[in-house]
Amino acid sequence: MSVTHTQVGIVGSGPAGLLLAQLLDKAGVSSIILERKDRAYVEGRIRAGVLEQGTVDLLNEAGVGERCAREGMVHKGCYISIEDERFEINFEELTGGKHVVVYGQTEVTKDLINARLASGGDLRFDCDNVAIHDIETDKPRLTYQKDGAAHEVQCDFIAGCDGFHGIARQTIPADLLKIYERVYPFGWLGILAEAPPVADELIYARHTRGFALYSMRSTKVVRHYIQCLPDTDPDDWSDDRIWDELRLRLPQADQDKLVTGRVFEKSVTPMRSFVCEKMRHGRLFLAGDAAHIVPPTGAKGLNLAASDIYYLRNAIVSYYKTKSQDGLDTYSDKALARIWKAQRFSWWMTSMLHNFSTSDDFDARVRGAELAYILSSRAGQTSLAENYVGLPF
Ligand code: APR
Ligand code: PHB
């Protein structure tokens, strides 16, 4: 068995694990990332694409913000439509100049992997049977197999950045965790297609046929979503059927602006809110999707992973500088305070904008009134904008 030592062992090379590794590297703290899948798989996963300024700042700090600065699209607001009416939410005006950047998570992941490999950082793909040991001691370990050989990584700390289906959360005794969960009675059928965007900003469309989102990746590639049943088979949706449905959910005045094109990715995302408390046990720290999931309405998933990593990096770096445990002890509470606010926002956006087949008429009316109120009130719009651009870390 080969044995290596590092300061921080990281499980998972999604945005959370990769960002942590790069930020620790800048602070002179060593880390090793163990990833179950291969590089092509990790770089090929399609996810949301809206970055808060705080996330962009962290990418810059990690030294990986250059392409995002060049190719990312600054969005100063968004549109919300209800049937045939379209309203503008101007983030900059409502928040004193704040905006978001539209840049695919897939690209963030590629930039982080490139930076990690370019700096000679330790990133191991195709690790089988990763297991976490001895987290209640001060010498935790990771073991795994690769190409039939057994390996061990001895660490000071372990970061569980292995997503919702990972093993890190399961390593903590179940009776020490409290799980909060809500599963929504719908999903999103998402496409990537070669077509120009419908408008200059994203359109969140509430419609009697169901919610739709008109997003983009560039001036030539769009990312659109249609509310669907959670067990929808994407193959039941031909390209024509998808484009027809997308057109019908737009306000009539915008329907001609929907330009169709070759669909090159098509998948269904289930919708879930999930929080695991606490996010630390002994020397194991959970971050990102390993600890929480939000429904994608409002695109908070990656941004929450980034704020977790901000708190975790600060805690670990401060430990090595001062030997103080304070940051480590408060990590979970600090991260969860922000997570719950983003959970509230994602749940609220989801409730206002979707059709709930399971709800009664009263609930449906109240949700409609909530959105109508927001769109008619500067205070309401300010609240939406403030959350959308991202609450402070
Ligand atoms: N061993 C090693 N790696 C694992 C294991 C395991 N047992 N289980 C999962 N992984 C890897 C996955 O293959 C994946 O590459 O952990 C990584 C987790 O990455 P993500 O799922 O992208 O999670 P995270 O880094 O927290 O990113 C959060 O991704 O899902 C979106 O909306 C979410 O945008 C948010 C962001
Ligand atoms: C996306 O572009 O993928 C996207 C944008 C906004 C969201 C969710 C997803 O709220």
Could you characterize the architecture of this molecule?
An eight-stranded mixed sheet has the order 7-6-15-16-17-14-18-21, sandwiched between helices. It is 37% helix and 29% strand. With 393 residues, the chain is α/β, with parallel strands linked by helices. 46% of the residues are buried. α1 crosses α6, α1 packs parallel to α9 and α9 packs antiparallel against α10. The chain has a domain of 235 residues: FAD/NAD(P)-binding domain (3-Layer(bba) Sandwich). β10 and β11 form a beta hairpin. The protein has twelve helices and 21 strands. The model has no long low-confidence stretch (mean pLDDT 97). The chain binds adenosine-5-diphosphoribose and P-hydroxybenzoic acid. The site of adenosine-5-diphosphoribose has 28 residues, from α1 and α9.
Small molecules bound in the structure, each named once: adenosine-5-diphosphoribose, P-hydroxybenzoic acid
How much is the average pLDDT?
97
Give the helix/strand class. alpha/beta
Shape category: globular
Strand content: 25-35%
Query: What is the fold named in CATH at topology level of the domain at 2-76 and 99-180 and 272-349?
Result: FAD/NAD(P)-binding domain
Radius of gyration: 21 Å
Helical amount: 25-40%
Low-confidence stretches: none
Summarize this, please?
This protein has a domain at 2-76 and 99-180 and 272-349: FAD/NAD(P)-binding domain (3-Layer(bba) Sandwich). It is built from 12 helices and 21 strands. The protein has helices at residues 15-26, 39-44, 53-61, 66-71, 91-95, 105-118, 168-171, 239-248, 301-322, 326-353, 361-376, 378-389; strands at 2-5, 8-11, 31-34, 50-51, 73-75, 77-82, 85-90, 100-102, 122-124, 128-133, 141-146, 149-154, 157-160, 178-194, 203-206, 212-216, 221-228, 263-277, 280-281, 284-286, 292-293.
